[in-house]
Amino acid sequence: MTAHTSAVASDARAAADVKAATPGVAAAEPPENSQAPKESSRVVIHCRDVHKFYLAGEQSVYALQDIDLEIREREFVSVVGKSGCGKSTLLHCIAGLLPVSHGEIAINGERVQKPGRRDIGMVFQTSALLRWRTALENVLLPAEMFGLSRKDIEPRVRELLRLVDLQGFEKQYPNQLSGGMQQRVAIARALVHDPSVLLMDEPFGALDAHTRENMNLELMRIWEATPKTVLFVTHDLQEATFLSNRVVVMTAHPGTIQEIVEVPIPHPRTRDVLYTREFVRTVKHLRELLVSQRDGGR
Amino acid sequence: MAPEALPAKTHAELFQYFHDLEVAAEARRARRTRRINFVGRVLLVAGALGGWWLMAAFYPPVLVPSPGATWRAFLAEIDTIWKNTPPTMLEIALGFLAGSALGIGLGGLIAQSRWAEVIVTPYLVVSQAVPKVALAPILIIFLGYGMGSKVAMAALIAFFPLLENTITGLRRADPDSLRLFQALGASPWQIFTKLRVFSALPLVFAGLRIAAVLATLGAIVGEFVAGNRGLGALLVISMGTFSTPLLYCTMIVLTALALGVYVLAQWLERKALERCNLAGPGI
C-alpha cells in the first residue's frame, strides 16, 4: 500500500514539474483528479458523416462508412476492431494523411485538409526513428519542421526525455536502445511541439507482452502528467480498457462504429486497475462485442 | 551410469570452473579456425601457381610463360610498366569521379519528381541493356585518340550503377518515417535532405564500390581501342609482338590496381556509414 501511494505522489510531482516547464499545457483541473471529461468540455476531434472508399489493386475497399465521432478535450479514446476494420485508416484520415471520400473531419474547430498541423502529434507502430540521429536529435525533428530554434527548444526536449524516463540516453542512437525505449523516444518526439492532440497507431503492437504492459503504465503516467486528447488505435482489448475513457468498437467491411463503450475506472490508474471488477467486466463486454461480429472470412 | 562428480561446490567455484572450461574451448576453436583458414588459403595459391607452372610445362613459352619467366619479364620491363601506369591511373580516377558525380547528380535530380521517374524509367532499362563497351569506338571517333575518350569511357561505364543505385536508394525510405514527415508537414526538400539522402547512402556507397572497379574496366577498354599509352595499350602491344610474359605482368599489375581502387572505395564506404550510424543491421 505504501508503494502504491508513493507512486501516486511521484506522479503528481512529475505532473507539477511538467506543467511548470510547459506553459502551453493549461490545466483547468489538477490532473490527478481528472476523470473522464464531462459534456461541458470542448469537442477537439469531430468526425461528421465520414466515408472512405479506395481501390487497392483489384479490390475496392469500403474502409469507413458513416463515421460520426466526437472526442472531447483531454479525453483518451481507443479504437478497437479486427484487422482490416479501418481503424488505422480513420487515424490517418484524422491526421490528414489520407483524404476522406465524403464527410468532414475537424480538429479544434478547423477542418482537416492536409497534414502538417501543429496541433497534432503522431506515434506509429514502428518507432520511425531516424537511425542516423541520436535520441535527442530525433526528438528535435518536429521542431526543425516547425521552424523552432534548437536553442529554445532543447531544454524542453531534455525535459520530455526525462518524462519518458530516458534521462541519460540523449546521445544514444536508436539501434542502441531497446524496442520499448525506442517507442518512448517516439512519444517524446510526438509531444515536443506541444500538440493538443496525440494520434497513436498501434504504438506498442510490435513489443513483447511484458514491455507492452510497462509501456501502458508509462503512457498512463505521461498522460496523467500532461493530459492531451488522445486517439489510440489498438487490437488489444486490455490495453484499450486500461488506457481509455471510452473505447470505440469498429466492425470490418465496411468499417462502421458498432458501439462506443465507456470505461468506468477513475484516474490515476495503476497496475492494480487490472484486477478490478470494472476492468474485467469492460474487457469482457468488448470481447463479446467483437465475437458477436459476423466473421467476414478474413 | 552416474555422471562424474563436479570438482567444486559453491556457486563462485562452479562459476569459475565453467568459465575457464568455456574460455579454453573457445580459444581452441579460434586457433583451429585460424589454422584451417591459413592453410586453406596458402594451398589455394600454391595450387593456382602449380597449375600455371604445369600449363607452362606443356605449352611453349609464347603461349603460356612460366611464373619464373613472367617474374623475369617484370624485372626486365619494369620501366615500361612504370611509365605506362600513371596515364591509366589518371584515367581511372577522372572517369570514376566524373561518372559517379554524374550518376549521383542525375539520380538525385530524377528522384525529385515522381513524373520524371515514371518518364525516365523505361529508357533507363534500355540504357542498361546497351553494351557500354561497344560505345568505345563511337566515343573515340567523337573525342579523338587522347585521354578524353578514355576518361569518357571510364565515366560512362561507372555512371550507370550509380544512377540506378541512387534512384533506388532515394526511393526506399521507411514508410512510417515518410508518414511521420508528411504528418509534420515537411516540404519535399525537407523530406529529401533529412530522410531520403540518408536512406540512400548505403546503396550509393555500394554503387561507388562497383563504379570504382568498372571505371578501371572502362579505362582499359578505351586504351585497347585507341591507345598508344597506358597499361591497356601495353596489353595490345605485347599481344602484337607476342611478348606473352609482359602480357601476363601487365595483367597482374592491372588487377592490383583495380584491387587498390576497390579497397579504397570500401574504406570510404565504411567510414561514411559509420559516421552516420548506418553500418550494420537496421533498427
Helix-strand blueprint:
The complex is a heterodimer of chains A (298) and B (283).
Chain A: H1 2-21, E1 43-56, E2 59-72, E3 76-80, H2 87-95, E4 102-107, E5 110-111, E6 120-123, H3 135-145, H4 150-163, H5 179-191, E7 197-201, H6 209-225, E8 229-233, H7 237-243, E9 246-251, E10 256-262, H8 277-292
Parallel strand pairs in A: 3-8, 3-9, 6-7, 7-8
Antiparallel strand pairs in A: 1-2, 1-4, 4-5, 9-10
Helix pairs in contact in A: 1-6, 3-4, 3-5, 4-5, 7-8
Chain B: H1 11-58, H2 67-76, H3 78-110, H4 114-129, H5 136-143, H6 147-171, H7 175-183, H8 188-225, H9 231-240, H10 244-275
Helix pairs in contact in B: 2-10, 3-6, 3-8, 5-6, 6-8, 8-9, 8-10, 9-10
Keywords, separated by commas or semicolons:
heterodimer; A: Rossmann fold; six-stranded mixed beta sheet; globular; disordered N terminus; B: 283 residues; mainly alpha; 81% helix; 0% strand
What is the mean pLDDT of chain A? Answer: 86
Q: Tell me the distance between the termini of chain B.
A: 49 Å
User: What would CATH call the class of one domain in chain A?
Assistant: Alpha Beta
The sequence of SSEs of chain A as H and E is HEEEHEEEHHHEHEHEEH
CATH class of the largest domain in chain B: Mainly Alpha
Side by side, the strands of the main sheet of chain A go 6-7-8-3-9-10
Q: Helix fraction of chain B?
A: over 70%
In total, the number of strands of chain A is 10
CATH superfamily of the largest domain in chain B: MetI-like
Structural class determined from secondary elements of chain B:
mainly alpha
Q: What is the CATH fold-level name of the largest domain in chain B?
A: MetI-like fold
Percent range for β-strand residues of chain A? 15-25%
* Residue runs with pLDDT of under 50 for 5 or more positions of chain A: 1-34
Relative strand content of chain B:
under 5%
Specify the structural class of chain A: alpha/beta
